[in-house]
Every structure is written in C-alpha cells, then in structure tokens.
Specification:
Largest sheet of chain B: 4 strands, antiparallel
CATH architecture of the largest domain in chain B: 2-Layer Sandwich
Helix content of chain A: 25-40%
Oligomer: heterodimer
Order of helices and strands of chain B: HHHEEHEEHEE
Family (chain A): Belongs to the Ahb/Nir family.
Keywords (chain A): Lyase
Largest interface: A-B, 77 and 79 residues
Mean pLDDT of chain B: 93
Number of helices of chain B: 5
Distance between the termini of chain A: 12 Å
Organism (chain A): Candidatus Brocadia sapporoensis
Radius of gyration of chain B: 20 Å
Radius of gyration of chain A: 20 Å
Protein name (chain A): siroheme decarboxylase
Number of helices of chain A: 5
Strand content of chain A: 25-35%
CATH topology of the largest domain in chain A: Alpha-Beta Plaits
Mean pLDDT of chain A: 91
Catalytic activity (chain A): siroheme + 2 H(+) = 12,18-didecarboxysiroheme + 2 CO2
Chain lengths: 156, 155
C-alpha cells in the first residue's frame, strides 16, 4: 500500500467484501464499525466505483440455484484484424457475460473467449449459432464445465 | 424454486448498483414499489437460502493493482482430483473447473483463474503449481476486454 488513503479504502473493502450489513442504514453501520462517519463511507465507495476499483456494489447471484445451469465457455479462432469487430458483436448478446481476447500458442489457437450463461445447454447453443451467423465465424469450441472445483468471488 | 415474484424483482434489481444513500433499501423500495422492511427481509431470506452469494463490492482485481490470469492445464484423467485439489489450495484461485470440448476434443481440461498482489507473486505461484504437479500451466491473460458484467436474466 502506497498511502494512507489507500489503506483506508482497503480496510473498508475488506470489512464489507463478505457482505453489507442488511440493515436500514448499512453505510452508517459500516462507519460505526470502522470509526468513520456515514458520509465518508458513502464518499469512499462512490470514488472507488468511479475509479473502477469496484466494478459494482451489487449482489452476486448463485446462478445455478436460480436455474441458470448451463455455462458454456466458447472459444473462437478469429483473424487478428477482425477481433475488435467480432468482440463487439459477441458482447451485444445478453447471454454473453464475458468476452475477452487472449493470447495464442502453438498448441492453442483460439484467441477470443466468450462465457455464455443460460438456463439450458440448448439456450447457450442457440446464442452460439446466432454469433456464428452474425460473424461468419466457423472455427470454435464449446467447452462445458463438467465439474466445479471452486467458484468464489474475488477477495483482496 | 421457492422465490416469489417479489423476490425475482428484487434479485433482478440487485444485480446493478445499490444506491449510495443513507437508506439504500428505502430507495430501492421506491423504485420497485416494495416497502423497505420487506426488501431487507427478502434479501436476508435469499442470502440465507443461498440464492444471493453476497451483497458486496465486486472488486476489479487489476484496478486494485492486482494481477490475474486464466490458466489451463492438461491433466491426465486419473490425476484430475489430485491436481484440482492442489490448485484449490491457493487463495488467489477464484474459479476452477473441469471442462470438456463438446464439438471438438481439447487437451486442456482443468481451467482456473488466479489473482495475486503483483506479477511476481502470480508467476511464482503458477510455477509452484507446475513444480508440485509436474504439469505445464498454460497462462491465458486478458489481452483485451470486450465485456465483463455478469447479470443474469431472471425469469
């Protein structure tokens, strides 16, 4: 940690990363626990969100539990010059939750990764079909998760 | 499924930022036309029953100065449990899955994400996994992000 402000932010995040108090005045209660006024808690969270250090202050949902059981990682072989165009098209699908470009290796030639979440495998595959039609891409692999060894939110 | 229509409405809304105001659940209640006490009570219920993992900041590891990567390993069938258990020991590992190609065979079958406080620590840990398992860990860090925002359609 480089300065005192950052220390306080880290302390704040560490205090709430397992969950906000589920009370009428959560920010006031966090402040009381950390010896900080409610307004400071709110302002610090606002700045962390604006700076993008916190993506969202929101619920992480156990998607399998609400019936979103299918989780397909679909990897695509995309010509370098088409990556930006294709990345935008793929991101436009609501079911595509993540879309990244990643490096290739001699034994790994798929450079664009999409995570697709759906209620069923069929729903995921319909999205893949639609992506194929919209982009004209044909070289891809659908990787389904066979087993979940670990899935936790990122903590600091 | 024991979620009510109200629960689904709340769950859907909670995937976006909750208000940074003194009484956030009162504000949410106004948006959704549900009273504050009910909102809090239903969120507690959904946390207890495990529908909501947590209502908390979703951290951008990189912006917080941390380094992260996706990694893939070709693990022989009979060593899958052993190797995945070794990977799981590391606290920076947030996801770890066994994956199988549906339309094509892919030799990489164990996929995990790891974050660490910096590049050095990250690579030191990945190296350690390689030493302990005797297997090569293929790193696939993000070159470009097009989308990250896990919000689900709640029917």
């Amino acid at each position: 940690m480089t300065n005192k402000k950052e220390d306080t932010d880290v302390k704040l995040i560490k205090h709430i990363q397992e969950g906000l108090p589920l009370t009428k005045t959560p920010y006031k209660d966090i402040g009381q626990a950390l010896g900080m006024p409610e307004e400071e808690v709110i302002q610090r969270l606002k700045k962390l969100l604006e700076a993008g250090k916190i993506r969202r202050l929101a619920a992480s949902i156990a998607h399998r539990k609400i019936g979103i059981n299918a989780n397909a990682m679909c990897v695509w072989k995309v010509p370098k010059e088409r990556v930006d165009e294709v990345g935008k098209i793929m991101s436009g699908f609501e079911e595509v939750t993540h879309c990244y470009e990643r490096p290739i290796y001699p034994d790994w030639e798929y450079n664009v990764f999409t995570m697709i979440h759906g209620y069923t495998d069929d729903e995921c595959e319909a999205v893949i079909q639609a992506i194929k039609e919209k982009t004209g891409l044909n070289d891809y692999v659908i990787l389904y998760s066979e087993k979940e060894f670990k899935k936790v939110g990122v903590r600091i | 499924m024991i979620l009510t229509e109200t629960d689904r409405k709340i769950l859907h809304r909670l995937q976006s930022n909750i208000p940074l105001l003194s009484r956030p659940f009162l504000e949410l209640g106004k948006e959704l036309d549900i009273d504050e006490d009910t909102i809090i009570e239903r969120i507690k219920f959904m946390v207890e029953k495990g529908y909501i993992r947590r209502l908390a900041p979703i951290i951008n590891t990189q912006a917080m100065g941390r380094e992260a990567t996706l990694a893939a390993v070709k693990v022989p069938e009979e060593r899958i449990d052993e190797v995945s258990a070794i990977i799981n020991e590391y606290s920076g590992v947030s996801h770890n899955y066994l994956r199988k190609g549906k339309n094509k065979h892919i030799p990489y079958n164990v996929w995990f994400t790891m974050s660490a406080k910096d590049d050095e620590e990250l690579h030191c840990r990945l190296k350690e996994i390689e030493t302990r398992t005797g297997l090569t860990v293929r790193t696939l860090p993000t070159a470009k992000k097009f989308k990250i925002g896990v919000r689900f359609k709640i029917y």
